[in-house]
Amino acid sequence: QVQLVESGGGLVQPGGSLRLSCVASGSIFSLYVAGWYRQAPGNQRELIASITGFGISTNYADSVKGRFTISRDNAKNTVYLQMSSLKPEDTAVYYCNARNPIKSTLEYWGQGTQVTVSS
Fold first, then answer.
1. Three-state secondary structure call for residue 68
2. Is pLDDT above 90 for 104?
């Protein structure tokens, strides 16, 4: 069992930056691929960034590539999402996800944190 707690959301002006954090507890964090998803009102939840267990590989959705950076610190059981050049269309609830790549049933979600990009 893995518990995930996100923080760092808030209101930011277009062009601004935010850093989201997700702290994991309850298991060996490096065993899990970590990802950030987001869901805007009326839209499906979408994967925007992911990082493998030891941070060797990252992937990004085209919509955030070049603006967002995912990273992790396994010593702190934390995954980060650095968001820059934010746009109003980035407004959404952002969710942290941890998924065991070997056993797909081991997948966990945080409670979400709201990011609002508005002037």
1. strand
2. no
d(C-alpha 75, C-alpha 78), whole Å? 8
To which residue do tokens 């960034």 refer?
Answer: 49
- The beta strands (E) that lie in 13-91 are given as 18-25, 33-39, 46-51, 58-60, 68-73, 78-83
**Encoded tokens for 111:** 């409670």
| Sign, Cα dihedral of 56, 71, 65, 102 | positive
Instruction: Pull the structure tokens for residue 66.
Output: 């070049």
Give me the chain's average pLDDT, please. Answer: 96
Place of tokens 């941890």: 98
Q: In the chain, pLDDT over 90 holds for what percent of residues?
A: 92
> What does the pLDDT read at residue 4?
96
Q: What is the pLDDT of residue 115?
A: 98
Residue type for position 31: L
The encoded tokens of residue 46 equal: 């979408």
